[in-house]
Design goal:
Elements (H helix, E strand, L loop, with lengths): L10 E4 L5 H12 L3 E6 L11 E3 L5 H15 L4 E4 L16 H11 L1 H17 L2 E6 L13 H21 L4 E7 L6 H14 L3 H11 L11 H13 L7 E3 L3
Parallel strand pairs: 1-2, 1-4, 2-3, 4-5, 5-6, 6-7
Helix pairs in contact: 1-8, 2-4, 3-5, 6-7
Length: 251
């Protein structure tokens, strides 16, 4: 992909950019020439301090800290990639999700994008150009009811919010894109497969098959890898179409 794409001179904010698909996206954007700022609670070794903000985006204050850093360090932003997401909810279906679990899922998977967009989109509208990429999930359509109901519901809400935002700001020069990955094989998703395997009395490969079957099957026969997601995210950024796009990579 890097042979014909460039992000030279573009200023990008990528949330959740220290692990998995987020880290792969940060690496690709830097390779393509973008000036990247990313966030997480803790800066990993090897990531320059000037391109990192240590904060908790599940809070309003954390989002305000990142928005301020974007203005001060980048002087504005051309691309926002909302990678942040995940689930720590327990298994056991809907009955296992109390008020705290629901609030946690919303604070991680929906509200950071809403808050950062609210803070940074006006600048994009003023400059008349920009791209916002919301990374949702196939689980917005195909949830895993035993484990990720809250996560799936939050991602569905993010998808609808993204569509509504696109209708509002696309005529003003700002594209809003949804990327809806299927199962990405990361450390977190492997832990989920291990948990499902233990509950089903099978091995890790059996746990992976449980996930793939729950998602309606994956013709490729395997999960995606982080680099594939990064390539998918970079592609709509440089496309010329001004309409709202949806990308699914699991089927």
């Amino acid at each position: 992909m890097t042979g014909f794409l460039t992000l030279e001179g573009k200023r990008a904010l990528i949330t959740g950019g220290t692990q998995g698909a987020g880290a792969a996206t940060v690496a690709l954007f830097r390779e393509l020439g973008a000036q990247v700022l990313t966030t997480a609670r803790t800066r990993p070794e090897g990531l320059p301090a000037e391109m990192f903000v240590a904060t908790d985006l599940t809070s309003l204050q954390g989002c305000e800290t990142v928005a301020e850093a974007v203005r001060n360090r980048l002087g504005g932003v051309d691309v926002i990639v909302h990678m942040l997401g995940g689930s720590s909810a327990p298994g056991g279906g809907f009955a296992a999700l109390g008020e705290a679990e629901w609030q946690t899922e919303l604070n991680l998977n929906l509200l950071p994008a809403v808050r950062l967009d609210r803070a940074l989109l006006p600048g994009m509208v003023t400059q008349g150009t920009g791209v916002v990429i919301h990374v949702t999930s196939i689980q917005r359509l195909l949830p895993l009811p035993e484990a990720t109901t809250g996560y799936a519901a939050a991602k569905a809400a993010l998808s609808v919010y993204s569509k509504s935002l696109s209708k509002e700001v696309s005529p003003k020069g700002v594209r809003v894109v949804r990327v809806a990955p299927g199962w990405i094989e990361t450390e977190a998703s492997v832990r989920l497969a291990e948990r499902l395997a233990a509950e089903a009395g099978t091995d890790l490969e059996g746990g992976k098959r449980i996930i793939m079957q729950s998602l309606g099957g994956i013709p490729l026969g395997r999960p995606s890898i982080p680099a594939e997601i990064a390539n998918l995210i970079a592609f709509p950024r440089i496309g010329s179409c001004g309409q709202h796009h949806r990308h699914r990579i699991c089927d």
